[in-house]
Each structure stands twice: as structure tokens, then as C-alpha cells.
Amino acid sequence: MAKEGIPFLLIALLLALAARFLLPGKFVFPAFFLLFAAFVAFFFRDPERKPPEGAGLVVSPADGLVVYAGPTDGGHFFSGPAEKVSIFMSLFDVHVNRAPLSGVVEKIVYNKGKFFRADVDKASLENEQNWVIMRDGERKFAFVQIAGLVARRIVCKVREGDRLEKGQRVGLIMFGSRVDVYLPPGTSLRVRKGDRVRAGESVIGEL
């Protein structure tokens, strides 16, 4: 379980305990808070993942549904043509994000924005988001944590200058969100819109 979920879990359990003693004979309230505690533990689950071996393989940074896969002209902080994969995470997906490739974090940019639904195209441009721009030799790539309609907190655990390995945990987004990946031109994408992927395991492209 991701440690960010521990406070929510403890609050739910304390509320269940309080309801049990303050409202004797009424089991609906303790049951409700226990169900909420179970959902918190489920939402913040953090299973182990083993990235596939192979040079140039790009793994998904998030669990979820591919809502876009194809060329783009870049984004706010990634200029020039690129290949882009966008992954939407529902409330029921694992929300721990992972590095799509090995490399050095060159720049991190937090951009405060709006809170549109994370599965629509304009979320990539206008929603609150955190850009992690990386480099491996001459190759530059980026992944972007994007808040959604419900999500209100982006957690990024890496810093500029950090060396990341493919599949390494890098953070999470709470309660429904999206992650975009920008890859160098010429990257062969292995997914298309409608595919489901798993962070750190599913191959989404090959450099």
C-alpha cells in the first residue's frame, strides 16, 4: 500500500470505531466507515511490477485505458514533434506512477490549471499537471501527471538530477487522473486507443 493512503485509512478506521461506541446498536455507520477503509486500502494498493527486458522498450507509466496514441506537436514544455500516449486512470485502477524509461530527470515543471475530466483531450492542455522531462543521452522524453475532475493532489517523488530506472516508482495522483507520455519522433508505438495497460509492465512503444 502506498504510504500516502495511510492517513485516509486511519481516519476511516477511527471513524468506524467511534461510530461503534457512540452509536450502540446502529451498525450501519460503522459498516459504512469500514467499507470506506476497505476502498482506501484498495485504491492505494501498490503491487510489485517487473519491467520487461530489452533495450529501447518503453513501459506504461500508469495503469488504465489508452485514450490517445499517435503523433503530436509537443506540449507546454516539450517542443517539437513527438509520439504521445495518454492513459486514463479510473478510481479502480492502481494509481502509482512509474518511469517509462531509464534516464536522468532534466526538469520538473508544475503547472497549476483547471480540473476537466481527465479522459478528454483538453485535459492535456488545461488541467493541473506536473511535467517530468527526462534525458537518456541524446534522447529526450517526458511523462506528465495530470489531475482530473475528482483528483486534487499530484504526488511527485523525484527531483531534478535524479537517475531513474525503467519501471521505478515516481509518484501518484489521487482519485482519478491521467498520465501523458511524450516520446522521440520515430518511436514505434505498441498500443492504440482502447487498450488497457499496466504501469511498469505493459510495453507501449519501442525507441
Brief summary:
With 207 residues, the chain is α+β, with helices and mostly antiparallel strands. It contains 3 helices and 14 strands. The protein has 2 domains: 3-43; 57-206, Distorted Sandwich (Glucose Permease (Domain IIA)).
Description of the structure:
This protein has 207 residues and is of the alpha+beta class. The chain folds into two domains: 3-43; 57-206, Distorted Sandwich (Glucose Permease (Domain IIA)), CATH 2.70.70. The protein has helices at 6-22, 28-43, 123-126; strands at residues 57-59, 64-74, 79-89, 96-98, 103-111, 129-136, 139-147, 154-156, 163-164, 169-173, 177-183, 188-189, 196-197, 203-206. Strands 9-5-6-7-11-3-2-13 form an eight-stranded antiparallel sheet. Strands 1-14-12 form a three-stranded antiparallel sheet, with no helix packed on it. β2 (64-74) and β3 form a beta hairpin. α1 packs antiparallel against α2. The longest helix is centred in the N-terminal third of the chain and has 17 residues, at 6-22. It is elongated, with a radius of gyration of 19 Å.
